[in-house]
Write a structure and sequence with these properties.
Mean pLDDT: 75
Largest sheet: 4 strands, antiparallel
Shape: elongated
Strand content: 35-45%
Order of helices and strands: HEEEEEEEEEEEEEE
Helix content: under 10%
Distance between the termini: 55 Å
Number of helices: 1
Length: 191
């Protein structure tokens, strides 16, 4: 039946490896059984794939530099870098086994910061070659921004109509209450 045939394909019994310089090509599948033949054709397009399968949580882009972070466990790498606009990826030397929820790159591309919701940070000041761990004051962080002067700006989830912004430079943390806002936007958005 058609349902059995679909189940056979979905279960991963058939695979196709795309090896071609062309961006797309026609794939023809023929099935012969009991003297009957059925054919189906489809246009197959080339796509980049990765052997890395993680719970990706954020992506930062600055020119050809891409940084992706993931929620991981154990000794898995949670920060991945690409310097060729995503054609190839490598695990960063950032602390492993951390569940990163946000990542940002400074406008000049030199500083990168990956952050967990609890405020654990991995910071690179050399475009991802080396990483330094840090810990922001306890809070429920939602996003971060990296400035060219090396400061990190972290935002938290609003508890009412107040939002705090925490800034970091080297080892100094400062929480700055932002003026009370009259309308609360969706938690997790930069304001």
């Amino acid at each position: 039946t058609l349902a059995n045939l679909n189940a056979y394909f979905i279960a991963g019994n058939v695979s196709y490896r795309y090896v071609s310089a062309a961006d797309a090509r026609t794939l023809t599948v023929s099935i012969a059984q009991n003297g009957l033949t059925s054919q189906a054709q489809s246009q197959v397009s080339r796509a980049l794939v990765s052997d890395v399968s993680l719970g990706w949580t954020d992506l930062a882009v600055n020119g050809n530099l891409l940084v992706a972070v993931a929620s991981v466990s154990g000794s898995q790498a949670g920060v991945y870098l690409s310097s060729d606009a995503g054609l190839s990826w490598q695990a960063a030397n950032a602390p492993a086994g951390k569940s990163y929820s946000a990542v940002a790159i400074s406008p000049d591309g030199r500083s990168i910061a990956a952050m967990s919701a609890s405020g654990y940070l991995a910071v690179s000041r050399d475009a991802g070659l080396t990483w330094t761990p840090s810990q922001a004051p306890a809070d429920s962080y939602t996003d971060l921004l990296v400035l060219n002067d090396g400061r990190l700006v972290l935002t938290d989830k609003p508890t009412s109509t107040d939002v705090t912004v925490t800034t970091y430079k080297k080892t100094f943390w400062r929480t700055v209450p932002v003026n009370t806002i009259s309308t609360v936007t969706t938690p997790g958005t930069m304001r």
